[in-house]
Design brief:
Blueprint: H1 7-15, H2 20-30, H3 32-48, E1 52-54, H4 62-73, H5 75-85, E2 88-92, E3 96-100, H6 108-113, H7 116-121
Helix pairs in contact: 2-3, 2-5, 3-4
């Protein structure tokens, strides 16, 4: 799953630095499932008052799974989403995206989520091929 980059944005990138808002708009348009998932998790975080919110619902299909994997695997995409939403994103498997408040990044819940133990405990037979 790749980004669909408008000609004007590609020309801007060829000429020099790109405005973060333009890049985020490209991500939003190219990866709508990933955008919706991250937006929902961030909205849950903001409405809960907690330090973390996460998605535990697997994507409905391979195309959506690919979008989420693309967004979380790309340093540039992930960082732009974090800056846009003002959160730290963490990722497990093919669907478990969590948003943490920046102040919670050094917290026990964050360390637990990103730990090898946390990764292993989030495995299940239905997720092994994702």
């Amino acid at each position: 799953m790749s980004l669909t980059v408008p000609s004007a944005l590609l020309e801007a990138a060829e000429a020099g630095p790109v405005d973060d808002r333009d890049f985020v708009a490209c991500v939003r348009e190219s990866l709508p499932y990933a955008w919706q998932t991250v937006s929902r998790v961030v909205a849950d975080l903001e409405s809960s008052g907690a330090d973390r919110a996460d998605n535990v619902v697997p994507p409905p299909g391979d195309a959506e799974r690919g979008q989420l994997l693309r967004a979380m695997a790309s340093d540039a995409i992930r960082a732009s989403l974090e800056r846009h939403f003002g959160v730290k994103l963490a990722f497990q498997n093919c669907h478990r995206v969590a948003a943490f408040r920046p102040a919670a990044v050094d917290s026990e819940p964050y360390r637990r989520f990103v730990s090898t133990r946390g990764q292993l405990l989030n495995q299940s037979p239905e997720l092994r091929n994702c």
